[in-house]
Amino acid sequence: MDLDLLHSFVSVVDAGGFTAAGERVHRSQSTVSQQIRKLEESLDCALFVREGRQVSLTEDGERLLGYARRMLALSTEVREAVSGRKRVDVIRLGIPDDFAADSLAAVISEFARSQPGVRLSVRCDLTAALVRGLERGDLDVALVKREPGVGRAAAAWTEHLHWIGGTPQAPAADEPVPLVAFPQGCIYRNRAIHALEAAGRHWRIAYESPNLLGLQAALKGGLGIALLERRCIVPGHHIVDAELPGVPPTELALCVPDAGRAPVRRLATVIEEFCEKEMTRPAAS
Questions:
Q1: Same domain, yes or no, for 39 and 117?
Q2: Which part of the chain is the HTH lysR-type domain (predicted)?
């Protein structure tokens, strides 16, 4: 297959669109579009669903993505081996937005500085997207939120979920609970809705954001109630567990699909040590 076409394909996926991908590969948007069309014709399938300027992968596109990344990585490895240049080991890391973003970023940065032969590619996203990345082989290490004990993990920590609001009182029993939540697919959101419905409580989505900072601001502003892990509590938040149904714990898991590479093992160890400290740190009050 034409590696140049695969490079453009991966660039469109990573950039989220044809225009941004063109900037990455130093080509015009029309040239990138032509390359993707040529690739689709050679494979006899559609790779993207195009909706205005937004693009998303088809099922065939998702299947191709893992192969394309591996072929490009192998091509780079071959060039470096033949030319005698020192190989740079790329580690693809996935982390959730709502897990100690600032302090974890500092730890990751320190690791990168201490490993001159390693290049980190970090993706901060919702767990649902990170899980898909693991399944496609797009990530070497990832922290994901999940049901306890589901699947293999290098390490796992229990998450204690709490109902959190901007005031000490939850809505009255005859009022819908205004939920502040991550988008669909988030385990916290699913747990919240299932718990409320099992208890016969009505609910509505009052505020939705893919970013923790947005949810925290909405809570402090009094827009609703969120079900979050205790580490997400900041000054101005109030736990209102006593007035809402109980929710069982979830799990934060460190996933390392292939720990055969020494740099991957070292990064996983660094993240595990960080998580051990972070998960036992008292919540803000």
A1: no
A2: 1-58
Number of domains forming the structure of the chain: 3
- Helix axis angle, 127-136 relative to 59-83, nearest 10°? 60
In a domain, 197, yes or no: yes
CA angle 260, 264, 267 (to 5 degrees): 145
Q: For each of the chain's 285 residues, which pLDDT tens digit applies?
A: 788 899 889 888 887 788 877 777 777 888 888 999 999 999 999 999 887 767 889 999 998 998 998 888 888 778 777 766 656 678 999 998 888 677 888 899 999 888 878 888 898 888 888 988 888 888 999 999 999 988 889 999 999 999 999 999 888 888 999 999 999 889 999 999 999 999 999 999 999 998 899 999 999 999 999 999 988 888 999 999 998 999 999 999 999 988 778 889 999 999 999 998 888 766 554
Residues 29 and 74: their CA atoms lie apart, in Å, by: 27
Q: Is residue 81 assigned to a domain?
A: no
Strand positions, DSSP E, the chain: 48-51, 54-57, 89-96, 118-125, 141-146, 155-159, 161-165, 177-181, 203-208, 225-229, 238-239, 250-255
Q: Residues 27, 8: contact at Cβ < 8 Å?
A: yes
Q: How far is 187 from 144, CA to CA, in rounded Å?
A: 10
Q: What angle do CA 35, 42, 55 make, to 5 degrees?
A: 50
Same domain as 209, residue 261:
no
143 and 170 inside one domain: no
Tell me, rounded to whole angstroms, the distance of Cα 129 from its chain centroid.
Answer: 5
Range of the domain at 119: 89-152+251-280
